[in-house]
Structure formats: structure tokens, C-alpha cells
Amino acid sequence: MSKYRLTYFDARGRAEVSRLLFAAAGKAYEDIRIPVSEVRNKHQDWLSIKERAPFGQLPMLEVDDDFILAQSHAIERFLAREFDMYGKDEFERAEVDMFVQAVDDLLTSLIEYHFLVTDLAEKETIKQKFFRYSCLNVLDACEVRMSDPTSFLVGESLTLADLSLLDLRSWIQNVFPDDHVMLLGPYANIYRHNQMVASLPGIAEWLEKRPKTAF
Ligand SMILES: N[C@@H](CCC(=O)N[C@@H](CS)C(=O)NCC(=O)O)C(=O)O
């Protein structure tokens, strides 16, 4: 059995979908979390991990001590293939990729808005674009897909796409604590889908026990 080690900061961030994949598959892994203080202080432990990471960034997945993978979505796809959560054929896999990339577009805006941009006018522009256009496009498409209460986003079983959509909800709730209800409220099918995925074995336990972090 493969030995997996996932290294990231003490946050959900760009590692959480991979953690959800492990949880859904019921696979054991080492969930290594670098304290943010170590990053700020340029602690030697963090610097040596940074040196080992293919692009000097996290998340990073190591398998059996002889395989290292970086880039959150490459890691997610690798795990989804390993755990049979990447669609049953090329068409489903292409659609999984489509939804993951659509969610990533939104994450990029959320990260820009919350962590990177400091100019207030620029922040407002990003927020308006997110609320009036980009987020609605993605949510509208997912809402239509989810009209069948028992269905998954792609195909007839859980895939990486479902977990990405579930994780998007936490991001939106965190970045827009005052506005997320207004944004997500109209999407009843997505809410039902998120609840259904969140209650699946493995996922429900993980959501309950995962470390409580701001992001
Ligand atoms: N495209 C990469 C982005 C990775 C990334 O930006 N990682 C950040 C944390 S989310 C990082 O390692 N920052 C620390 C650094 O760059 O020193 C991915 O999706 O994995």
C-alpha cells in the first residue's frame, strides 16, 4: 500500500481538496502542517521543506519516499485517479477538469481580493466582478447540473469536481462573511449537493474533526 505524505501550511487553503479526497477514499496519509509562524520567521524547518518542494511552494505530495508532486490541481488529479474519483471515461474526466478549473478561477479572485490586493478601490472592483459576473456564471452552471437531488456534478459517483465545489463554499463563506448568504442563498440545488457530499462517509468525519483554521 502506498505511503502518502501531504505537506502544506496549517490551513485548508490549496491543500483541502486533496485532504477531502483522502477522507472520501478512507486512505491514510500524513497531514503535515507547517505553522505560519515558521514561514514568517524563515524557520530552518520551513526553508528545508521549501528547498525540497519542486517549485518552492506548497502543497506538496510525497509518495513512498521516492515521488514528489507539486501544484494543488496536479496533486488532486493524481489522487483522484488513484482513488477512482476522476470520472469513468475521457468525457467525464474532461468535465471534472472543466469544473475544477472554473472553481480555480474563482479561488484566484478570492485570494487576490483577500490576501494580495490592498488598494480599496481595486478590491471593490474585484468584489463587484465576482458578485455580479464570474461567480454567478459558475454557480448558475452548477445549479442547473444539480437539479436532480441525488446527482453528482459529473457522472454517477463522487468525483474531484464535487469536492472542489464543496470547498468553494467554505472559501466564499470565509472571504465574504457578511455577503455569502446573499450570494449563495438563491442556489438551492448547490446547497443540497454540498449537504449530500458533506454527509458522505469519511467526509462527514473529516469535516467534524479537521483542525479549525481561519482559511
Ligand atoms: N499554483 C500553485 C500555487 C502554490 C502557492 O501559491 N503556494 C503558496 C501557499 S497557497 C506558497 O507556498 N507560499 C509560500 C511561498 O511561496 O514561499 C498551486 O496551486 O499549488
What does this protein look like?
- The chain has 215 residues and is α+β, with helices and mostly antiparallel strands.
- It has two domains: 4-84 and 202-209, Glutaredoxin, CATH 3.40.30; 90-198, Glutathione S-transferase Yfyf (Class Pi), Chain A, domain 2.
- It is built from ten helices and four strands.
- The chain has helices at residues 16-25, 36-40, 44-52, 72-82, 90-116, 120-145, 160-175, 180-184, 188-198, 203-209, and strands at residues 4-9, 30-34, 60-63, 67-70.
- The protein has a four-stranded mixed β-sheet with strand order 2-1-3-4.
- Strand 1, helix 1 (16-25) and strand 2 form a beta-alpha-beta unit.
- Bound molecules: glutathione.
- Residues 13-14, 57-59, 71-72 line the site of glutathione.
Number of domains: 2
- Rg over CA atoms, rounded to whole Å, is 17 Å
CATH topology tier name of the largest domain: Glutathione S-transferase Yfyf (Class Pi), Chain A, domain 2
Whole-Å distance between the termini? 31 Å
Q: What hetero molecules are bound to the protein chains?
A: glutathione
Total E-strand runs: 4
CATH architecture of the largest domain: Up-down Bundle
User: Strand order, biggest sheet?
Assistant: 2-1-3-4
Mean pLDDT: 96
State the helical fraction. Answer: 55-70%
Morphology call: globular
CATH class of the largest domain: Mainly Alpha
- Would you identify the regions where 5 or more consecutive residues have pLDDT less than 50? none
| H-E string | EHEHHEEHHHHHHH
Major beta-sheet overview: 4 strands, mixed
Structural category? alpha+beta
Q: Note the beta-strand portion.
A: 5-15%
What is the helix tally?
10
